[in-house]
Design brief:
With 484 residues, the chain is of the alpha+beta class. The protein contains 18 helices and twelve strands. The strands form three sheets. The protein has a five-stranded mixed barrel.
Length: 484
């Protein structure tokens, strides 16, 4: 615009019309502007050839150009943000995550960035969190309550104001008595429980979810009584009934890890305190070639001259991971696997996709086998998939032994009866079962014999975990690996 004004005598308005014509690349309008520009420049003593050359340069620039003010602004912004990320990573990432508070896809990416920066991302806390992400210390980020799905800003600001005015919340029932029910309804309350925001109350999320209806009902009754002016005979409003051992809600064991994480993802849009792959991580050591973090970090082979050695960069490989994305790319389907150490993109041609599409479901864990190669386009390793299996099927076919850990708890006799009834329907399998008993003075391992060999299905593993607790069911595998 300045060139047009100074060189060709354009007015400000005329120069803006020239800019607009160049931006929209209209040939007819550009031809008209060329004539105006050359005439104006020659009338100011510029040679016609020079004026034409300058207009040609301007037209070429309009194909894609970035003016200096934009370039300078972006350069300054890039420098400032890079400095903050390098020297104040927790504060920087908390600010970035707060800016994308409701963009779950973006938060998933930023969560991975926090892990790479070795920052601790803590679950939301009803007694500590603010609406946005905050920074308790230099290496820690506290999840913002505003990022919990189904909990609006008015609800969060209301509960924070009450917390500041009258102190921390003690338990679920007391929380329900103190907050504004017009702003915090049952859906919001359940979302906070599922997200882990109420873990500081010291109860399992499963117990608190079970208590929600009664806690809301009790608080609502008290509020209505207070509003109606129901006083005792001395004119004093009755105090809330104190919690005793007799009226204390029943304490339920925590959900199994998979159920807890699914509830967490429902509330936050991502897995925060764990990863679904954790449940099969030990098994995957025997079923795959290694962790995705190790495989993807491997540099591509090179020749003696430092060039890419594509012949050596291809090999058969087996990997396992949680499916986080499935999308079509040209004549291929791209599937992204995640094992919480890294992500890896694998590809299926149309024929393979049609064969395995029933297994390619988000949030399911699969084992894939195929030709691994280094892809320069994505800048990393990928696999052309030949076979896909659900990891439960692989575990079921490969596990040779199951070890169940028991500890004395005063209910040993009943526990053994439950164990007997639980194993009975799953007998006639190929997986031996042994019981590892750990007492105060001694420990022993007892094999249940071939007649109690079982089929180690997910259903059985889940039921055993429910009965014995997390980390008390372990599978052992024979040496070697042959995925069928």
């Amino acid at each position: 615009m300045q060139i047009a004004q100074v060189l060709a005598g354009y007015t400000l308005g005329g120069a803006d019309l020239l800019r607009r014509a160049m931006g929209k690349k209209k040939a007819e309008e550009m031809a008209k502007q060329r004539a105006i520009f050359v005439d104006g420049a020659t009338s100011r003593g510029v040679a016609e050839r020079t004026a034409t050359h300058i207009f040609d340069l301007m037209e070429k620039f309009a194909g894609y150009g970035f003016n200096k003010s934009h370039s300078a602004a972006y350069a300054v912004l890039s420098y400032q943000t890079a400095y903050l990320k390098a020297h104040y990573p927790a504060a920087f990432m908390a600010a970035v995550m707060s800016a994308d508070l409701h963009n779950t896809d973006r938060l998933v990416t930023l969560k991975d960035d926090c892990r790479q920066l070795k920052l601790v991302l803590q679950r939301p806390d009803i007694n500590q969190s603010e609406y946005h992400f905050s920074v308790p210390d230099e290496r820690t980020i506290l999840y913002g309550l505003g990022a919990i799905k189904g909990v609006g800003r008015a609800a969060v600001e209301s509960l924070i104001a009450e917390r500041h005015a009258n102190g921390p919340y003690q338990n679920l029932v007391e929380f329900c008595r103190r907050v504004d029910h017009d702003k915090i309804n049952r859906r919001a309350l359940e979302a906070m429980v599922k997200s882990g925001a109420m873990d500081s109350f010291g109860e399992s999320r499963r117990s608190m979810m079970h208590q929600v209806p009664e806690a809301l009902k009790s608080a609502d009754q008290e509020a209505k009584a207070a509003a109606a002016g129901q006083n005792d005979m001395f004119g004093i409003v009755a105090a809330p009934v104190a919690e005793t051992q007799e009226n204390k809600p029943p304490q339920l064991a925590e959900w199994q890890e998979r159920m807890l994480l699914n509830a967490e993802k429902e509330a936050l849009g991502l897995y925060l305190t764990g990863h679904p792959f954790d449940a099969v991580r030990n098994d995957a050591r025997y079923l795959a070639d290694g962790r995705l973090g190790d495989i993807t970090a491997e540099p591509p082979p090179q020749t003696n001259k430092g060039e890419r050695n594509y012949a050596q960069a291809k090999r058969e490989a087996t990997v396992a991971g949680l499916i986080v994305d499935v999308r079509k790319r040209g004549n291929r389907v791209s599937v992204v696997l995640d094992d919480d150490t890294a992500r890896m993109e694998v590809s299926l041609f149309s024929e393979a996709f049609q064969e395995f599409r029933h297994l390619l479901v988000k949030d399911e864990i699969v084992v894939v086998t195929g030709g691994m190669r280094y892809d320069d386009f994505i800048g990393g390793w990928t696999i052309n998939v030949k076979n896909v299996l659900h990891i439960d099927r692989v575990i079921e076919s490969r596990a040779k032994s199951m070890v169940l850990s028991l500890a004395p708890n005063g209910k040993s006799e009943n526990l053994l009866e439950q164990l007997h009834d639980l194993l009975l329907p799953f007998r006639k399998g190929n997986c031996d079962v042994s019981v590892r008993y750990i007492g105060d003075r001694a420990a022993a391992r007892l094999s249940l014999g071939p007649e109690w060999s079982v089929r180690p299905s997910r259903e059985l593993r889940d039921k055993l975990t429910e009965l014995l607790g997390n980390n008390n069911v372990r599978l052992l595998y024979a040496p070697g690996r042959e995925i069928m």
